[in-house]
Amino acid sequence: MIIDMAKTNRLGNIKAKYTADLKQSETTVRQSTDNNDDESSPLADLVNQIQVKYDNDKIYYGNPDEFKLYPNEQIRLKPHTGDKKELLRDSIRQDGVLDPALVWIKDGEKIILAGQNRNIICKEEHLQLPYIIKEIQDSRQADRIVVVTNLHNRQHNEMLPSELCSMLSCLIDSYDDDIYKGDIIKDIGNEFKLERNQIYRVLSFKKLIPQLLEMLDKKLMPMYAGYTLASVSKEKQDALHHFIYDNNIEKISKKNVDALMSRPEAPWEISFMRKAFGLEKPEKKRMRKNTVIDNLQIQKYLFEGEKVDIQNTVISTLNLRYQIYKKMEGYHVTYSEEEVLNAVEQYLKNK
After folding, report:
1. What separation in angstroms does the CA of 55 have from each of 47, 103, 255, 342?
2. pLDDT by residue (tens digit) across 174-229?
């Protein structure tokens, strides 16, 4: 159904906003072309195509239940929750839906390319959703449009690492094979304000096993751990996952990863991983302790001349004790102070 724009103030706001957006988009594209010596790029062309210029008769109005979610779950972002959802709700209540959803008509079904959050709010608020229809050649083109609108409309740090990885991978795969990958990365970086190293690191998450990728999405390990572990073999990742599961380990830290990467080539045995996660602490060497004896405790046992050099007196006494012990051992007599005193007493009696 085509809506009469003159009868709807809110849809009039839509047209005004999109006219302004279109002018800004045309200016941006023109500047981008000038900066690139009149050379365009596949991504810039795609972005320009999404910024559709339309008249009143191109805006449609539909019941939220008429629309289907985009079928490719890997590039379909999770709906807003919490404050972001409520901010969008407040905006729609006050001004209506200023940005029509992008819709692809496929096999008679209306599939949302961009606008699932607006559709959710409209359904909850019992409003109809304004939308425009995109002419799509195939699912590959549809994927590209979903990715580009997602990357433009949502902050990168609001996406799960796996979501950003899937979208960038999808976008790169949409380029022709004859285009140099370095140029593709540069093109994406310029369009979405991403550093080259950041793009490569995010793309490396494809090499993570699903269990570790899930931990990364749940913030149970830092991004550093994600792209570092992505560089090791699947066998090591599997071994790490089973070790974490068996030992009820909830998080992986940078320190844990650095300890694991100290062995980049050799296998990761259980004993090695236990040390990396601090489950086996090295034995502490026993420190020799010096025993301090108060002089007053031993002075009463010393003769007058011995008090001057207590240390030598103690050493001499211990030496004598040792000599007596060895002498008694030679006669197969067990050493004891009582035996020594008895022997001395017997000697004095016989004297």
Report:
1. 20, 16, 58, 124
2. 776 666 778 888 888 888 888 999 999 999 999 999 999 999 999 999 999 999 99
Check: CB of residue 204 under 8 Å from CB of residue 230.
yes
SS3 of the chain: the string is CECCHHHCHHHHHHHHHHHHHHHHHHHHHHHHHHHCCCCCCHHHHHHHHHCCCCCHHHCEEECHHHEECCCCHHHCCCCCCHHHHHHHHHHHHHHCCCCCEEEEEECCEEEEEECHHHHHHHHHCCCCEEEEECCCCCHHHHHHHHHHHHHHHCCHHHCCHHHHHHHHHHHHHCCCCCCCHHHHHHHHHHHHCCCHHHHHHHHHHHHCCHHHHHHHHCCCCCHHHHHHHCCCCHHHHHHHHHHHHHCCCCCCCHHHHHHHCCCCCCCCCHHHHHHHCCCCCCCCCCCCCCCCCCHHHHHCCCCHHHHHCHHHHHHHHHHHHHHHHHHHHHCCCCCCHHHHHHHHHHHHHHC
pLDDT tens-digit readout, 55-104: 544 889 999 999 999 998 888 888 999 999 999 999 999 999 988 999 99
> Could you tell me the sign of the dihedral formed by the alpha carbons of 118, 120, 126, 132, in that order?
positive
The domain defined by 5-154 folds into 3.90.1530
Lowest mean per-residue pLDDT among 180-189, 277-286, 291-300: 291-300
Query: Domain locations in the chain?
Result: 5-154, 208-276, 295-350
How many residues make up the chain in this entry? 351
pTM of the model: 0.61
